[in-house]
Amino acid sequence: VDVNGAPTRLRRLPSWLLGQLNVEARRAISAVFAAHDLHRSQYALLAALEQFGPQSQAALSQRSGLDRSDVVRWVDELAGRRLVARAPDPADRRRNVVSINAAGRRLLDRLDLEIGAAQERLLAALSRSERRQLVQLLAKALGSEPSDGAAPVVADLNWR
Amino acid sequence: VDVNGAPTRLRRLPSWLLGQLNVEARRAISAVFAAHDLHRSQYALLAALEQFGPQSQAALSQRSGLDRSDVVRWVDELAGRRLVARAPDPADRRRNVVSINAAGRRLLDRLDLEIGAAQERLLAALSRSERRQLVQLLAKALGSEPSDGAAPVVADLNWR
DNA sequence: CAAATCTCAGCGGCACTGAAATTT
DNA sequence: CAAATTTCAGTGACGCTGAGATTT
């Protein structure tokens, strides 16, 4: 993706710039996951399970931002690889309770490092403080409230 | 898209934030174009034609960032609606020369306004200076060199 | 009964690939 | 001949919809 040479109209358009950088981001990230025969969505699921504990697929959908039907597919895959467990909820038999296990946590830790490195590659043209700024601006635009509880649940990723 | 409630891992990940905001951006922008029975890609083509003049489809592909095969499809559409003209290049008969006409320019002007308004909606949570910052950071991350020739080719869009 | 949950089949937009046809 | 250009058919990932089955 070479943005120089593109029309001025586009080069000034936030939505266009977002789209272009997102293309590069998807490429970089997908490559990381492909090396593990995994998918972006599965990282989101593992992250939600690690942070919020065992939960229904509906809850997973809400927390991960994935569609309910995609949650079904990706949990299938994760369960088949023994990275998560899926069991009917005895308290409400409409639900499946999904939980991450030790192998899932190990994989998540390994992925954190590689994904962090990919972020650095993606934003190589920016300084550290610029990367921080970009993250804050994106979060604010999304209506993200400061992740309360000043104590971070997860250790700082290495791209910071 | 509600980003609060998402895992901390994701909320700190530039590529994830990019993806989430890009989803909203696509939704906002597509709605604008749908009202004109148009497509995002066609705006990019019109913008390239307006700024750089008549050119081959290969050149259009490079300038607009669209794939060569998609250029074929969208130029088909634009030509069918008499917004651009497509004629074989007498100097090199492998090429088609595509050019924008008066109707295309009028449409482009109208779109500029509506797209500008959509950008404002997308970034409503940001102040003006934050929006400017975001655009600059995205551009820098993409390796965009300052659009040289301090004189802008296009009038400032109203979302600035 | 209405509402929630899970599951499955499939759709539409989109970036992209491969190959054929033509011309330089 | 190799390389460039246009065109077309098709693919795969992705976000999403609709509907059915089950349970509360």
Strand and helix layout:
2 copies of one chain form a homodimer.
Chain A: H1 8-11, H2 14-34, H3 40-52, E1 55-56, H4 57-64, H5 68-80, E2 84-88, E3 96-100, H6 102-122, H7 128-141
The structure holds a DNA duplex (24 and 24 nucleotides).
Notes on the structure:
Two copies of one chain form a homodimer. In chain A, helix 2 (14-34) crosses helix 6, helix 3 packs across helix 4 and helix 4 (57-64) crosses helix 5. Helix content of chain A is 59%, strand content 8%. By secondary structure, chain A is mainly alpha-helical. The two termini of chain A are 25 Å apart. Chains A and B meet through helix 1, helix 2, helix 3, helix 4 and helix 6 of A and helix 1, helix 2, helix 3, helix 4 and helix 6 of B. The structure holds a DNA duplex (24 and 24 nucleotides).
Task: Please name the defining characteristics of this protein.
160 residues, mainly alpha, 3-stranded antiparallel sheet, 7 helices, DNA-binding
Briefly, what is this?
The structure is a homodimer of 160-residue chains. The first copy, chain A, has helices spanning 8-11, 14-34, 40-52, 57-64, 68-80, 102-122, 128-141; strands at 55-56, 84-88, 96-100.
Number of helical runs of chain A?
7
Task: Give the percentage of residues in beta strands of chain A.
Answer: 5-15%
Question: What is the helical fraction of chain A, as a range of percent?
Answer: 55-70%
Name the shape of chain A in a single word: elongated
Provide the succession of SSEs of chain A. HHHEHHEEHH
Largest protein interface?
A: A-B, 65 and 65 residues
Q: Please, what is the average pLDDT of chain A?
A: 89
| CA gyration radius of chain A, whole angstroms | 18 Å
Number of strands of chain A: 3
In terms of structural class, how would the helical and strand content of chain A be classed?
Answer: mainly alpha
Spatially, the strands of the biggest sheet of chain A line up as 1-3-2
Biggest sheet record of chain A: 3 strands, antiparallel
| Amino- and carboxy-terminal Cα gap of chain A | 25 Å
- Could you list the spans of chain A in which at least 5 consecutive residues all have pLDDT below 50? 149-160
- Oligomer state of the chains in this structure: homodimer
